[in-house]
Each structure stands twice: as structure tokens, then as C-alpha cells.
Design brief:
The structure holds 2 protein chains of 2 kinds.
Chain A: H1 7-31, H2 39-57, H3 61-83, H4 88-106, H5 127-146, H6 148-158, H7 160-165, H8 170-196, H9 206-219, H10 225-240, H11 246-263, H12 271-282, H13 295-307
Helix pairs in contact in A: 1-5, 1-8, 1-9, 1-10, 2-3, 2-4, 2-8, 3-8, 5-6, 9-10
Chain B: H1 2-28, H2 35-51, H3 56-84, H4 89-111, E1 116-117, E2 127-130, E3 133-136, H5 137-159, H6 161-171, H7 173-178, H8 183-209, E4 211-212, H9 220-231, H10 236-257, H11 262-276
Antiparallel strand pairs in B: 1-4, 2-3
Helix pairs in contact in B: 1-5, 1-8, 1-9, 1-10, 2-3, 2-4, 2-8, 3-4, 3-8, 5-6, 6-8, 9-10, 9-11, 10-11
The chains are: A mainly alpha, B mainly alpha.
Chain lengths: 308, 290
């Protein structure tokens, strides 16, 4: 079905779909009020689980890919107990440390072949597999946001104490979210291992998480469409900048991040921002300024409308 | 004993990095991802000054000033806009990542992605023999400088009027502004100092390794985070102690346990500290955290 695409484009498409899963993983925890920087650690566990099982123990690739997310989720469940006691930026730093420990341990073990990594992992992943998986995950997210679970999360984001007082089990909610997000990251890692056929600890370094964080945070913590669409647009934009070389790509992308965040500090799906934009549309006639916002605010929205 | 000295030497550079990051976190609640790039700016400005014939000391001064100004400029130009919009901690994370990318790209443009030799002839790099042990002179300078910085910053924050203003803003920006403190000046000052400290550590590290590139300081960002978590975020004394401790742990773990687990032990130490005493060794308890 996708044979019309050149191999390069097909590879880009596949990697974009896998990255989408990682963005979803960051987004899920972020929606629960937790900023996790551990997804690459869980992706490493997923990738290495399937790579070791397939290359060393002759497992069926599909079976081991199916198992990999559970490996990542298990590790997350063990570490969730201490790490989930932290909040805010402390949680973020704790998860950085956790991810680093995982990657360092992997690069020093014999079974994972240390820093050299594992090669010749069979490529069994087709593009339609990935599309199917991404769709399944997104449908799951959509159903979840409409369920008790999603509404409880929304309440938790608004006011943790009130939510707890109204009977929301905050701990259980955060634990489930953290573990599920880790499982999705593990799935992404396993898929990537089979798609690229080579893995090494370096590709799970902290720097590789940085663009994923930016997609998720620019997208905001509202609906999942925000981060997912932001990720796709930004990935395509970065692809288009490739011919300029990494230096210019970084320069432009860095400036873009600064501008986007100054325009929308809580992400592009921030309800306040959307309300402001909607209000702007209603009051297109300059004389009918019902919103009562200052002229400066209007100018901001106008300028940003051009930028996005 | 030699290990102890090596640990102190490594730790003193970590401490200086940590102080710059902890100052910005403690006062402004911004976790900066651009600190390593500020270090690079300082080291580059110093290298360019020395290569154009300047003596070491004025060159270091220029480096420190360049990074301090760059840092203050970023605050006045970008962060003030975010503060105006009541941005949360995470917005600053993305923006500092963006700033870091911009600075790295600019330095890469200048060096064409090459690693350059750092002109360190005039720096005191030769080891000094004390009681039969080799002590790198540069480390002594670094240790002394970081201790002076700690004392000076503590004095400034605890005893002077502008230091009071900084603490007042850290406690509550609104109240401080009602009392007539210009918070914009306070923010810019803190960034100015943080940038200068970054430059100092960047110059020391470039001088002791003898080379510099656009990305040579990147791994130090995680080190900085580790230091401030160990010492307690926002505590200057904590950053110094945390830095020295992390240096020691690194060196001793390399020798007595295994060189390969060196980094893992530092990270495990962070996890342990965060879980057992989230406020760090010297941090004050925060109610928001739990």
C-alpha cells in the first residue's frame, strides 16, 4: 500500500509514527500533572527486551514485541513507588536520573553487548502495522479522556486537593498513568529496534528525548490532538530544514520554540489561549470590542495567528 | 589521599557549575537548560581574546562579562515576556532548550563544528607537589574561586540591601513589587551573575582539558542537575557541598567499585536523595512538593 513512497520517505514516516508514540507517552504523564523525562529509559528497556529475546533466544519477533511493553511497564511499576512521591520539577529530575541509570546499566551489561549495541535485529515492521498501532493508541486515549478515568485526571489537573476530597484516588490514578505511559514508550522502543534493525545505548541518551519533550510541551496538556499534531508539523518542518544542515536547522528550530512558547506559555491547546483566539474572531469589527481585552493582547493574538 | 585530591578537583568544577544553576532556580524558579551553552560562550570569548593577543586575566574577564551579558540579555529579551504571561516552570524548560539550541548553532557556525585547542599556556596547569602528592594547580584555583564565590554570594544575599531584594522577590514577586522592589532588575542581576559563574566554570574546564567545541559542555548539564538535587535546589552552600560530594563519589566509585558504574552511582545517589530527603542536603522544606 505504501510502496509508492521512496524508501527514505517510508523510513521517515515510520520513525515519525514511532516518535508519535513517545510523544503520547510524555503527554499522558503530563496530563496527570507529572512531567516525566524517563520515556527514553523505558523505550530502551522495550527495545533491548525484544532485541535480546530475538537475537539470543530465537524468539518469534512478533511475540517479543508484544512482550516488550510489559517489561517496561514492570520496571516503571517498581520505580513508581519512590518516584511518584515527588512533584513538579523534582519529579522531572528524578525521572531523568532513573532514565540515565537504565541506559548506563544497559551499556555495561554483557547480555546487551555493552556500548556496541545489538545489530541484525530482523525487520518485521511494516508501515501499516505502525499506523494501526498509533490509531489504536490514539483511540484508546480518546476513549480514556471521555471515561471516568479521563475526567478524574482533568479534575486532578485543575485542583489536586479538591479532586482528592471528591473521592478521586490520586495515587492510583498517577500510578496507572505512569505505568501505562511507560508501556507505550516500551512499545515504541521495541518497534524502533525492529524497524532500524540496530540498537545501541547512545540512541536512548538524554539528548534524544529533548525534541520529544518540546513537541509534547508546545502541544500543551489539553487534548491529545495538540501534542500529536504539533509533533507531526514540527517533524515535517525539521525535515524540510534538513537541506540547510543541522546548524541552521537548530538555529531555526530553537527560535521557533522560543517564539511558540512566548506566544503560548501553556502550550497550543491551552483553553485560555483558544478562548482568546475565538474571542478575537468574534470581534473582528474594531469598534465592537466586547471582550474588554487590552489592545496589546489583541496585537499578540494577531501576530501569533500569522506565526502559526 | 591522591584520590581525595582528585575528587576535590573534579568536585570544585562541579560546584561552580551547580551554583550558577541553583541561583537561577532558587530565585526565579527557572530550571535552565542553557547553562552549558553559557559556559561555552564564556570559554569561547576567552579563547578569542587570548588568540588576539590579550593576557590571560583580562581575557578571562572578557569571557565572564560576555557570558554574563548574554545571560542577562536572554532574561530581559525572552524570559521577561514569559513572566508577563505567567508562564509555568515547563514553559521555561522549552524556552531554555530553544535558547540552548540557538547558542549551540551560533558557536557551531563560528567553529564549523570543529574541536579547537584552548590556548592554556598562561593558565596554571602544571601540578604542584604538596607532601609528595601531585595537586593540579588549576584545581586549587578552582576550589578557592568556588569557595570565594560561595562566601561572596551568601554575604550578598544575607547582608546587603540588593541581596534582600533578591530574597524578597524569591519569596513573593508580587509582595516585593508592592514594597517598591524592581523585580525586573533583580531577575536580570541574577541571570548576569549566573552567566558569569557559568563562564568561570567553562573557562576552567576548557583550560584543564585543553580543548573546546560547540558541544563539549553538553554532558555537564546533567551534572549540574545532579549537583543541585544533591545539595538542595536553591541552596548555594548545598550546591558547593553537592558538587564536591559528587566529585568525590565519582572518583571513589571509579576506583573501589568499577569505572563503568561511575555515572550510574551518581544518578542513583540523586534518586536516593530525592526519595529520602527531597529537599536535598541543605535545602529548605517546601510545602508544594509533597
Amino acid at each position: 500500500m505504501f510502496s509508492l513512497l521512496s524508501p527514505v520517505h517510508q523510513f521517515t514516516l515510520d520513525i515519525t509514527l514511532i516518535t508519535t508514540l513517545l510523544v503520547v507517552s510524555v503527554h499522558m504523564t503530563f496530563r496527570a500533572g507529572l512531567f516525566s523525562m524517563a520515556p527514553m529509559g523505558f523505550a530502551a528497556i522495550g527495545g533491548y527486551t525484544t532485541a535480546v529475546l530475538v537475537t539470543k533466544y530465537d524468539w518469534n519477533p512478533l511475540a517479543s514485541i508484544a512482550l516488550a511493553p510489559f517489561g517496561a511497564a514492570l520496571v516503571a511499576a517498581v520505580f513508581a513507588v519512590p518516584v511518584l512521591r515527588l512533584r513538579g520539577i523534582y519529579f522531572a529530575l528524578g525521572t531523568v536520573a532513573l532514565a540515565q541509570v537504565i541506559v548506563i546499566l544497559i551499556s555495561n551489561m554483557d547480555i546487551t553487548n555493552g556500548v556496541f549495541g545489538i545489530s541484525r535485529i530482523p525487520n518485521v515492521i511494516e508501515t501499516w502495522h505502525l499506523i494501526l498501532l498509533v490509531v489504536v493508541v490514539l483511540v484508546f486515549l480518546q476513549l480514556e479522556s471521555r471515561s471516568y478515568f479521563g475526567r478524574a485526571l482533568a479534575a486532578l489537573r485543575l485542583d489536586e486537593r479538591t479532586a482528592e476530597g471528591l473521592g478521586v484516588n490520586v495515587r492510583w490514578l498517577r500510578f496507572t498513568t505512569f505505568v501505562t505511559a511507560a508501556g507505550i514508550a516500551g512499545l515504541a522502543g521495541a518497534l524502533e529496534a525492529h524497524r532500524t534493525t540496530v540498537i545501541s545505548p547512545g540512541q536512548y541518551a538524554f539528548v534524544t528525548l529533548v525534541p520529544i519533550i518540546t513537541y509534547a510541551l508546545v502541544g500543551g496538556n489539553g487534548h491529545w490532538l495538540g501534542p500529536v499534531l504539533t509533533a507531526w508539523v514540527l517533524i515535517v518542518a525539521r525535515q524540510q530544514m534538513h537541506f540547510l544542515g543541522t546548524t541552521w536547522e537548530h538555529l531555526i528550530y530553537g527560535s521557533l520554540l522560543v517564539l511558540l512558547m512566548v506566544f503560548a506559555p501553556s502550550g497550543l491547546t491551552d483553553p485560555k489561549l483558544l478562548r482568546r483566539v475565538r474571542r478575537r474572531k468574534r470581534t473582528t469589527l474594531p469598534s465592537v470590542d466586547r471582550s474588554g481585552t487590552k489592545g496589546q493582547d489583541m496585537a499578540e493574538v494577531g501576530a501569533a495567528g500569522g506565526a502559526s | 589521599m591522591q584520590q581525595f585530591i582528585n575528587g576535590l578537583a573534579l568536585g570544585s568544577s562541579y560546584a561552580l557549575i551547580g551554583v550558577g544553576v541553583t541561583l537561577v532556580w532558587g530565585v526565579l524558579h527557572i530550571l535552565t537548560f542553557a547553562h552549558a551553552q553559557m559556559m561555552t560562550i564564556g570559554a569561547f570569548a576567552t579563547m578569542i581574546s587570548i588568540n588576539s593577543g590579550l593576557h590571560m586575566l583580562p581575557a578571562v574577564g572578557i569571557g565572564v562579562l560576555a557570558a554574563a551579558l548574554a545571560s542577562a540579555l536572554v532574561d530581559v529579551g525572552i524570559f521577561s515576556q514569559l513572566r508577563k504571561r505567567n508562564a509555568d516552570v515547563y514553559a521555561f524548560v522549552v524556552v531554555t532548550i530553544g535558547v540552548a539550541m540557538i547558542i549551540e548553532a551560533l558557536t557551531r557556525l563560528r567553529t564549523r563544528s570543529q574541536t579547537l585547542p584552548f590556548p592554556r599556556r598562561e593558565f596554571p596547569v602544571q601540578p604542584l607537589e604538596v607532601l609528595g602528592r601531585n595537586v593540579p594547580r588549576l584545581s586549587i584555583v578552582m576550589l578557592v574561586v568556588s569557595l570565594i564565590v560561595m562566601v561572596a554570594l551568601t554575604y550578598w544575599l544575607q547582608r546587603t540591601k540588593s541581596g534582600f531584594a533578591v530574597r524578597a522577590v524569591a519569596y513573593s514577586r508580587e509582595t516585593a513589587e508592592l514594597l517598591g522592589i524592581n523585580s525586573r532588575v533583580v531577575f536580570a542581576t541574577c541571570f548576569f551573575i549566573s552567566g558569569g559563574l557559568a563562564a568561570l566554570s567553562g573557562i576552567f574546564i576548557a583550560a584543564s582539558s585543553g580543548q573546546i567545541s560547540h558541544s563539549s559542555n553538553d554532558p555537564l548539564l546533567l551534572v549540574a542537575f545532579a549537583v543541585i538535587v544533591l545539595g538542595g535546589m536553591g541552596s548555594i552552600k548545598g550546591a558547593i557541598v553537592g558538587g564536591l560530594l559528587l566529585g568525590m563519589v565519582n572518583v571513589y566509585a571509579t576506583i573501589y567499585i568499577s569505572p563503568i558504574f561511575r555515572e550510574a552511582i551518581a544518578m542513583l545517589a540523586i534518586l536516593l536523595v530525592l526519595v529520602l530527603r527531597p529537599s536535598g542536603l541543605f535545602g529548605e522544606k517546601e510545602t508544594v512538593r509533597v
